[in-house]
Amino acid sequence: MVNNEEMVYWWQGYVLIIIKGKRLERLINRMMYQRLSAWDLVRLSEEEAQVCITVPDFFRLRTLLKETGCRIRIVKKAGLPFMLKRMRPQAGLYAGAVLFLAMLYLFSSMIWSVEIEGVSVPEQEAQLRATLADLGVKPWNFKFRVAEPSEIKRQVMERLDHVTWVGFGYKGTTAYLKVVEKTLPEVSEKVYPRDLVAKKKAVIHDLFVESGTPKVKPNQYVRPGDLLVSGKIGREDQPQQTAAKGKVWGEVWYVSEIRVPLKQQKAVLTGEQQGRYYLHVGPYKLKVWGFGKIPFDDYVIRDQTYSFSIGAYTLPVAWTIEEVHAARQTELTLEKKEATELGIKLARDKMAAKLPEDAQIVEENILKKSLDSGKVYIKIHYSVIEEISMAKYTSQGE
Amino acid sequence: MRKLHQKLKRWAAGVLDIPQDVILDMPRITMIGPLQMYVENHQGVLLFNHNELRLLLSNKGQLLVRGEKLVIRQILPEEILLEGHIRHVQYLEPGQ
C-alpha cells in the first residue's frame, strides 16, 4: 500500500470488515469492476475474508452484498471521521489544543519588533522604519506575507542613497536591519567667488582680512555697497577669484531722539500682600490656596515655581507660589536734570537693543535738549564701532 | 487460420514497436522476488485464499499462483497486486 494513498484513506476514514459468504470470488470481482477502494484482502477460511474499505465505498459495497448474499461484520474503524467521533466528548479540549498550536505557530511567524542597527541619526532611523513598514516589515505582520529578505534589501538600497550595504534577516520574531552608511569625505563648504561690501555708511575703523584683497584703509568713508575686500587675488594680469573672508569694523553714526515726561507714574508697594499657591500636574494648573478675587485695586505679582526632579528626570509635578503685592500708583515729578539722565539711560538701552552684540558705543553726544510742555526732549548722537561687511557674490564671468 | 492471425499479430507488434501484451491481450506480470506480484490485464479472480490465487485470462486460460500468506494488497479493474510468499506461478491453457 503506497503511503500517500494510505493517508488519503485515513482522511476519508476506513473500516476493516469481515465478509461472510459462499461466493466470495464473485464478490471480489464485482468489487473490482465497481472500482471500490479496497485493499489488504485476506482469505481467512472457506467462507470468510477480511478486507479494508473506505467509508463511502463501504456503503456502495452493501448494495453488492445483497446481490451476492454475503454478510459483513465491522471489525475496526479507523481514520479521521471516527477519531473525531471518539473525541466528541472532549471536543473543547482538543479544539483548544489545536487552536493553541495554531496560535503558537502563527504568533511565532509574526514580526514582533524591528531592530535597526548602524544608523547614526535618529531621523534616518525613523525614515528607515517607515520604509520598512511600507514593505510590510512592521509589528503584527506575518513573515510569510513579507517579501524575501533579498528583495527587502534591494528595496531599502533603492530607497536610500546614503547606504553602502544593507543586511536584513530574522532572528525569531525580530526583524534585523543592518545598515552600513557611506562615509563620505568631508565636503568642504563650496565657496563661490565673492567680495565683501559695506552694509551701511561708515568710517572704516579697522579691518582683518582672512582671504582676499583689502580695498579700503582705516579712516576711509564708505557708502553702502562700496567694495571693502575684493575676492580677486594674485597678480593684476592673472587674477584668481576666491571668496573674500574677513571682518571690517567701521564707525557708524546713529541719532536717537527721546522724550521723557517730568510727571512720572510709579507703582509703590504698600506692604500688603497675599499668597496664592498652585500645584501643576502635567499640563494642568490647580489652585490649592488663595481663592477669591484679588482684593487690591492695583497690584504686582511675583511668582516662583518649584519643580521636583529625581536625577535627570523631572517629575510632572510642580509647585508655584504667587505673591500678590498691593501697589499704589504715585505720581512723582522729576527735576529736569533727573529727567535728562533718565532719558539718556533709556536712549542708551534702546540703542544697545538695536545693535549687534559685538558692537560697542564709543561716543555719545547730546545734540539737543529742550523742555517742552512738561516733557524733556533729547537728541543724542552715537558713534558705534561695528562689523559693516556683507558678502556679495560675484559671478565667475566678471 | 487462427495460427495465421496470431502470426500477423506478432509481426505487427514487432514492426509497430507496440508492447506484446497489448497486441496479444496477455497479462503483464511484474514480480519483486517472491514477495510481490503485480498482474495487469487479467479478467477476474476465480479463486482466492491465503495460499492460492487463480486469475482468469482473456484467452480463457488461467494464471495460477501458489504460496503462503497471500494478501491482495489492491484490486483495481484488470489489475491486481498480490503480496506474500509466492512459490509457484503457472499458466493453465484453456480447456486444461
UniProtKB/TrEMBL annotation, chain A:
<protein>
    <recommendedName>
        <fullName>Sporulation protein YqfD</fullName>
    </recommendedName>
</protein>
<keyword id="KW-1133">Transmembrane helix</keyword>
<keyword id="KW-0472">Membrane</keyword>
<keyword id="KW-0812">Transmembrane</keyword>
<dbReference type="InterPro" id="IPR010690">
    <property type="entry name" value="YqfD"/>
</dbReference>
<feature type="transmembrane region" description="Helical">
    <location>
        <begin position="91"/>
        <end position="112"/>
    </location>
</feature>
<dbReference type="Pfam" id="PF06898">
    <property type="entry name" value="YqfD"/>
</dbReference>
Automatic annotation (TrEMBL), chain B:
<dbReference type="InterPro" id="IPR022476">
    <property type="entry name" value="Spore_YabP/YqfC"/>
</dbReference>
<dbReference type="InterPro" id="IPR022477">
    <property type="entry name" value="Spore_YqfC"/>
</dbReference>
<protein>
    <submittedName>
        <fullName>Sporulation protein YqfC</fullName>
    </submittedName>
</protein>
<dbReference type="Pfam" id="PF07873">
    <property type="entry name" value="YabP"/>
</dbReference>
